[in-house]
Amino acid sequence: MKLSYDQLDLKLDQKKNSDKHKYINNFNDVDLIKNFYFSYTLDITHTLQHYMTRPPNHWISPIIHGFVDQSKISISGRNIFVTLIARRSRHFVDARFLKRGVNDQGYVANDVETEQIVSEMSITSFHRSGLYDNPHYTSYVQHRGSIPLFWSQDVTNMAPKPPISIDFLDPFYAAAALHYDNMFKRYGAPIIVLNLIKLGKGDDDVMELMEGFAEEKLDIPKKYAMMQAVGSSQGGAPKSRYQAYEGWLKTEKLVVNSNHYHNSSDKKDTQRRFKIKE
């Protein structure tokens, strides 16, 4: 039996409506009360630098899944607000131990962008007469995520620390390259990679993961200086005063090298001082 064009269109419409209702029901099942945030005056899905260096867009109010908090500090009689925004990626998501490593598109598990915004609240608008015209805001962005290798942990194991399994050895680190390429596009260079792996006695599986991570970074030509690998002592032993001071110096160097964002009243000055990437 042959179907007319009208009958085919009707069947396609019915399928579209069925899919539409399925997606609407899936969305309605999401609890939007916990850990979801939006703002009518600011697109909080992007960093402050991205928002303030582009014309305002009021078409939609985007929503994020993550964390938002704010504290007020008084400095010499001036009220300063410190705002913390954590944005969880929508790619390659699941419960912590169910998703580890990277997928073949370069997206890592447990991917969170954290931004600290310091603002003087003597004014109420982000955008004034034009772009780059509001010097009352500064921002510092950090990004965390799972090690961009193909690895996992056995969640059926009842141990407090499930063993790590290297699922696939990629000799060319193609997925890791995609991951860092995306980071360069979003944040510019340099990308400073801080190793937060905790290493204890008998952690041979963790050591294997660390070696793979280090090998992947050593493959980058040093002359480009686009990435900097930094180790971090994450053992269980308490730190000495010298180790704490050494850690403070290392942190200061990282902040200076990566820079923070401050919106100047002059576009060229903002770009020169803080390496804005359009």
Describe this structure in words.
By secondary structure, this protein is an alpha+beta fold. The protein has 2 domains: about 1-30; about 35-275, no CATH class. The chain has helices at about 5-30, 50, 175-185, 205-220, 240-260, 265-275, and strands at about 35-40, 65-75, 80-90, 110-120, 135-145, 150-155, 165-170, 190-195, 225-230, 260. A hairpin with a 2-residue loop joins strand 2 and strand 3. The chain starts with a helix and ends with a helix.
Pick out its properties.
phosphatidylinositol-3,5-bisphosphate 5-phosphatase activity, 6-stranded antiparallel β-sheet, single chain, membrane, 10 strands, two-stranded antiparallel ribbon, hydrolase, alpha+beta, 278 residues, globular, Fig4-like, SAC_dom, disordered N terminus
Could you give the topology of this structure?
Elements: H1 5-28, E1 36-38, H2 48-52, E2 63-75, E3 78-88, E4 112-120, E5 137-144, E6 150-153, E7 164-168, H3 174-187, E8 191-194, H4 204-218, E9 227-230, H5 241-258, E10 261-262, H6 267-274
Parallel strand pairs: 8-9
Antiparallel strand pairs: 1-2, 2-3, 3-4, 4-5, 5-10, 6-7
SSE order in H/E notation? HEHEEEEEEHEHEHEH
How many DSSP E strands? 10
Strand content: 15-25%
Spatial arrangement of strands, main beta sheet? 1-2-3-4-5-10
Structural class: alpha+beta
Shape field: globular
Count the DSSP helices.
Answer: 6
End-to-end C-alpha gap: 57 Å
Low-confidence stretches: 1-5, 271-278
Helix content: 25-40%
Question: Radius of gyration, Cα only, in angstroms?
Answer: 23 Å
The whole-number mean of residue pLDDT values reads 73
Main sheet: strands, sense, barrel: 6 strands, antiparallel
| Total number of domains | 2
